[in-house]
Amino acid sequence: MFATLNRNLLKSIMLFDGVFSLATAGLLFAFSGPISGLIGPLATPGILLAFAVFFVFWGGFHLAVGRQEQPSPAAVRFVMIGDALWVLGSVAVLVLDHANLTAVGMGLIAVAAVAVADIMLIKQIGLGRQRRALLA
Asked: What does pTM read for this prediction?
């Protein structure tokens, strides 16, 4: 199993990110009220529902790119820019608006930012492997 993941790292991480994004959307659609209470007063259910809609499109895009035989480098770079913006936005929220976040909210945002940064790094590694395989 790990050999297949390693051989198709870019496809695998794009598909994983797509499925995870869609699962996150489902959780936000189903539990936006309770989740907003955990995060803080500015994370209203409406804002979380907007994030859920975003995650539907974000996840769908990842799945579409991940299903390609060779994921498009331009599409992967696009999502990596989105990942970087997510991490920067998360850090900005933690620094600038920590007074309006609960401890759980700060933890959720921090863990999500680290996870997105890790996934972005795996996409970069996969993109490099794909490029080297095409040149070989």
From this structure: 0.90
CA distance 2 to 83: 25
29: tokens are 């659609």
End-to-end CA distance of the chain: 24
Task: Say whether pLDDT at 3 is over 60.
Answer: no
Place of tokens 């895009």: 61
Q: What angle do the packed helices 9-39 and 103-135 form, to 10 degrees?
A: 170
**Which amino acid does the sequence have at 28?**
L
Exposed/middle/buried for 41, CB within 10 Å: 0-12, 13-18, 19+?
A: exposed
pLDDT digits (tens, 9 = 90+) for 50-86: 999 999 999 999 999 999 989 999 999 999 999 999 9
Distance CA 131, CA 136 (A): 9
Query: Would you say 25 and 82 are in contact if contact means Cβ atoms under 8 Å apart?
Result: no
Vertex 23, ends 127 and 113: CA angle to 5°?
Answer: 55
Would you mind telling me the total number of residues written for the chain in this entry? 136
